[in-house]
Design goal:
- The chain has about 270 residues and is of the alpha+beta class.
- It contains 5 helices and 9 strands.
- The strands form 2 sheets. Strands 3-2-1-4-5 form a 5-stranded antiparallel beta sheet, with no helix packed on it. Strands 6, 7, 8 and 9 form a 4-stranded antiparallel beta sheet that branches.
- β1 and β2 form a beta hairpin.
- It starts with a strand and ends with a helix.
- About 10% of the residues have low confidence.
């Protein structure tokens, strides 16, 4: 069946049609670009003597897609495919956890060492004198040095077990005790939280992958005081959105620290971060 389509500017197009599954399929013999939103009004005439029960007028609305629009559409589809692929990283699975590492007898241990129970919180306010503050500072400085060293170990194919062994050795070499070890039954000397693991991850035989992020939480017990610190490290080529997540999180940390002073309320820290 043949159709003649008329455009508002007087231009005409010659089309032919066929039927498939009760629907009319149209094809154009013109290579002209249709105007966006311009209605096409068809009149029809059968190519043979057969009669067809069709409406006498058929109106189609055309839409032109420019080269720029098509390029943008293709680029967007590729971006979506890329982002979808990036989100397909397999979830974390617990692998083999090696036995806890030994601590020499001469190293002073916290009260909870050797027990699987959590220590009770003191009901008394703790007021530290200058000697206590100096010991606290020494413990925190050691924890910071150990954390910096642990960060140098982060790279693809390294296991969190290897990081645990290195951290454990550095702490005991300094005459300190790795605080996480034995705390409430925790089996390792450091916490390694990879990707979606929020905190207190247990080191195991899983190898770090390119694109991972890992938070390493180092705490040492030195001269009766705990020094605690942690930081998130990038492993290999990390995507821009994850880099932004780590960057903004660190900025929030610094804003929270800026609030801390004598007499400051805890809720002000959370308010500043929010």
């Amino acid at each position: 069946m043949a159709f003649v389509a008329s455009l508002p500017d007087g231009t005409s197009l010659q089309l032919s049609s066929s039927f498939y599954g009760g629907q009319a399929l149209l094809s154009s013999s013109s290579s002209s670009t249709l105007l966006k939103g311009a209605p096409l009004i068809f009149s029809w005439a059968p190519l043979s003597g057969k009669k067809h029960h069709l409406p006498k007028r058929l109106v189609l609305v055309s839409k032109r897609i420019s080269g720029l629009e098509e390029a943008m559409r293709i680029r967007r589809e590729r971006e979506l495919q890329t982002s979808t692929t990036a989100r397909r990283r397999p979830p974390l699975r617990r692998l083999k956890v090696s036995p806890r590492l030994p601590v020499p007898d001469h190293i002073p241990k916290p009260p909870y060492a050797g027990s699987t129970l959590l220590p009770e919180l003191s009901s008394q306010h703790q007021i530290h004198d200058s000697e206590g503050i100096a010991c606290m500072r020494a413990a925190c400085e050691l924890a910071a040095r150990v954390l910096d060293y642990a960060g140098t170990l982060v790279r693809p194919s390294v296991t969190t077990n290897e990081i645990d062994r290195a951290v454990h050795q550095m702490i005991i070499d300094a005459g300190a005790y790795p605080s996480p070890l034995g705390y409430g039954g925790f089996p390792k000397s450091v916490c390694t939280s990879v990707n979606e693991c929020m905190c207190h991850g247990i080191p195991d035989s899983r190898q770090l992958q390119d694109g991972d992020i890992i938070n390493i939480d180092v705490t040492v017990y030195l001269n009766g005081y705990h020094g605690d610190t942690s930081k998130t490290f990038l492993c290999g080529n990390v995507s821009d959105p994850i880099k932004m997540l780590v960057k903004v999180t660190e900025e929030c940390l610094q804003k929270g620290i800026a609030v801390c002073k004598d007499g400051a309320l805890f809720r002000k820290i959370g308010k500043r971060i929010r």
